[in-house]
Amino acid sequence: MDIKYGYVLGRDRFFFILSIIDVFDRVIVNYYQGTVCEAKHVVQTLGKALQHRVKVGEPMPIIRTDNGPQFVSTLFGDMCESWGMHHERIPPKSPNMNAYIESFHSLMERDFMSKDTYFTMEEAYDAVDRYMDFYNHRRMHGSINRMPPVLFSTWVMQLHNRSKYFRAL
Known about the structure:
- This protein is an alpha+beta fold.
- It has one domain: Nucleotidyltransferase, domain 5, CATH 3.30.420.
- Helices cover about 45% and strands about 20% of the residues.
- The chain is built from five helices and five strands; from the N terminus they run βββαβαβααα.
- The strands form two sheets. Strands 1-2-3 form a three-stranded antiparallel sheet, with helices on both faces. Strands 4-5 form a two-stranded parallel ribbon.
- Strand 2 (about 15-20) and strand 3 (about 30-35) form a beta hairpin.
């Protein structure tokens, strides 16, 4: 999980994008965008991601972040503890230890943020929404069998369910 910012020229203002990536299948499981990104936004976004990705009885994922104020906040720490999640914080000045999300944000920058100029927040937010949809559903990913992340995730689940079926026979 990490935060990136973009710029809206027409408002002469930055906006924030918080993205959460599953390092196994590379799906962006949830994201937040807004003119501020506080600990409460991080907690809400992570909570929604967990609702979509973790089934009852499954172990909680390990959450890896940098040491930004949202991630070292009491609110975020209390949330991780109450949900039984392990929170890994990478050492300062070592973004390579959070390489999956850093790589994703680098792709965002290269593929659309540095190419377009936004005059309203709505334009910027729409561009982010379109990119997230493209990345998850259509962008081929070399490390996951040249599939888009959502397709790869579905494929893996089908293989997993099929193997459970054959073991039961």
